Amino acid sequence: MSPKTLYDKIWDAHVAHEAEDGTCLLYIDRHLVHEVTSPQAFEGLRMAGRKVHAPEKTIAVPDHNVPTTLDRAKGIENEESRIQVEALDKNAKEFGVHYYPVDDIRQGIVHIVGPEQGWTLPGMTVVCGDSHTATHGAFGALAHGIGTSEVEHVLATQTLIQKKSKNMKVEITGKLKPGVTAKDITLAVIGETGTAGGTGYVIEYCGEAIRDLSMEGRMTVCNMAIEGGARAGLIAPDETTFEYVKGRPHAPKGAQWEAALNWWKTLYTDEGAHFDKVVTLKGEDIEPVVTWGTSPEDVLPITGVVPNPEDFTGGKVEAARRSIEYMGLTPGQKLTDIEIDTVFIGSCTNGRIEDLRAVAEVVKGKKIKDGMRAMIVPGSGLVRAQAEEEGLAEIFEAAGFEWRLAGCSMCLAMNPDQLAPGERCAATSNRNFEGRQGYKGRTHLVSPAMAAAAALTGKLTDVRELM
Amino acid sequence: MEKFTKIQGVAAPMPLVNIDTDMIIPKVFLKSIQRTGFGKNLFDEMRYNRDGTEIEDFVLNKPQYRNAEILVAGDNFGCGSSREHAPWAIADFGIKCIVSTSFADIFFNNSFKNGILPIVLPQEHVDILMADAEKGENARMTVDLEAQEITTSDGEVIKFDVDPFKKHCLLNGLDDIGLTLEKADSIKTFETKAAQERPWV
Description:
The complex is a heterodimer.
Chain A: H1 6-12, E1 15-18, E2 24-27, E3 30-33, H2 39-48, E4 58-60, H3 79-95, E5 98-99, H4 110-116, E6 125-128, E7 142-145, H5 148-157, E8 159-162, E9 166-173, H6 182-193, E10 201-206, H7 208-211, H8 215-223, E11 232-234, H9 239-245, H10 254-264, E12 277-282, E13 289-291, E14 299-301, H11 316-327, E15 342-345, H12 347-350, H13 353-363, E16 373-376, H14 381-389, H15 392-399, E17 402-403, E18 424-427, E19 442-445, H16 448-457
Parallel strand pairs in A: 3-4, 3-6, 4-5, 6-7, 9-10, 9-12, 10-11, 15-16, 15-18, 16-17, 18-19
Antiparallel strand pairs in A: 1-2, 2-8, 13-14
Chain B: E1 6-14, H1 21-24, H2 44-47, E2 70-73, H3 85-93, E3 97-100, H4 105-112, E4 117-120, H5 123-133, E5 140-144, E6 149-151, E7 157-159, H6 164-172, H7 176-181, H8 184-197
Parallel strand pairs in B: 1-2, 2-3, 3-4
Antiparallel strand pairs in B: 1-5, 5-6, 6-7
């Protein structure tokens, strides 16, 4: 048998039907659902008199619209947001899928809840009507975002019509330097490949620096595979993965655990397997990075300066000009001179316990800059509870952060957490698009430690100077 | 789904690269639980001032492009969020075909599900079509899916590739779910086998 990549192996294990032209029906093991991209899909089922094919493999949780303020038990003020969450309540009940409502401590961002509850396991196919489904690739699961028509298709058939993508390897060799995190890896890769560099590919991340990451860090890396244009990002499962999964509510137990483990241990890329594209970065070359523009590929080390649009070529010249104007920056300006009004820590990229620990380490015993709006939004109710148990919440509140309830919050600002026009934010989220965090709001993407540093100084800051 | 066979219409030029789905339809409009009515908010933040008045120099506000049916766009069109509201807004506005050097994967798939034909062409061909689109309303392009050809207003013919299955679905306006349910036996067989091999799933 010819050597296979990890992606080849998971793909081959899930093809339910293959047509002559290579169009496949890919079987889906887990379908995650949230309130924004599902109402039209459930309505479609209803209109056609169809049922959910496998409700036991379907998990729903509201996250995008939910308020994260402590008074959220009193309900959602915005009528459209409320209707959307109520629609999910109703659809989950009517179609009998697993559901974590807003008042359940397990509620949170769908991509944090799935792994936390043990729904996401190695070797699975996982989809969700959300591009950051790539997150689950950290477990060696083939996971990607789909549109609402495809959500309806998966609900009705538990399959997806797919053609296989190409294989791409992203290797991060060696060790990371102090102050450099998983977020810096994933941003540095996008800076290298561009936002279309992964189009048509599934990425497998490998190398010593990836192996050394915790599951939380691996999820951060895979989460942003989509920002590099890839269909999915994958990391081969290993002891770190098995350790994380073991004992979670929906992870296999007893003899099933042993059987699962035996299969999971075969999930790696065979020696000599073919990759259509290879990108290699040295771990020690990666610096703490920030984005300066309005595309996640606009990445520079924090020690850099705002570029000149003329430094680019092709369509990027005009795009960079537009970005720099939108962001209110000047070419040549030092990145560490950029003043920040708001800090947002959270999201499916960086809303896990390890991210909060990294923030606490930087801000412990210190105060955020006067006038700074800084919020920490845990990725789930359980992350929040753990942070409180570990004493992190006290550190955050003493430093002047708002300590919120779980949700997507200001990552995409569908709930009341938004930037005002012209406001500038250091954010641990995943997109710096125009208007992403609020109309005319300005976003700089950073790691949790770098966001914490910016909250203290009021500027984009090299966290290594505070260490 | 509406069939796509052949269209002849005005093409609007949008040379900006990395046009993301937040630009195509900002999140404030994602709160609807309907599939329709998004066209008026297509490119909302680029198209309107905060008071709702139009931004004159935005391409789709110019008289010659208000009824555009084709978009010629910069590289990596539709990147970002998986929101199908983006192709819903584009289709609702009346655009049926988008040409670029590349599309983001999810947007590309979503387009086909909504009767929109995304066409990938090499840079030199996109440049020709962009220049043609710049000519305005008298320059009408023809997109023929059956023949896989775009004809510029000057009569220049550019061939394009399209996935045969996706082409078949677009030409006939076919519903994917209906097609897949015809293979229900294959799905059942797979499930039985998978339940034995991977019972923990």
